[in-house]
Write a structure and sequence with these properties.
Elements lengths: L1 E12 L5 E14 L6 E14 L8 H13 L3
Antiparallel strand pairs: 1-2, 2-3
Length: 76
């Protein structure tokens, strides 16, 4: 089961930086063995892309979601 709790642009204005923005995603991944319900994976990933003086709209959300999911399933 993959649950995306939040996906969207973010924009912070004020101190300590003048403008900071980008995209963020919060993703929960849970994998169970169907035969016995054993939990194989249970993780939460908080992914961000952006920084100071970055302002993103919604046009990059498809690519950002793909990058966030790759991050969530990357081997540790």
């Amino acid at each position: 089961m993959v649950v995306v709790h939040e996906l969207g642009p973010r924009l912070l204005v004020g101190l300590p930086v003048f403008i900071e923005g980008g995209t963020e995603a919060d993703i929960d991944v849970r994998m169970l063995r169907l035969a016995n319900g054993e939990r194989l994976m249970d993780t939460r990933t908080q992914w961000r892309n952006g920084g100071t003086f970055v302002i993103n709209g919604v046009g990059s959300l498809d690519a950002d979601l793909s990058a966030a999911l790759r991050s969530a399933f990357a081997p540790v």
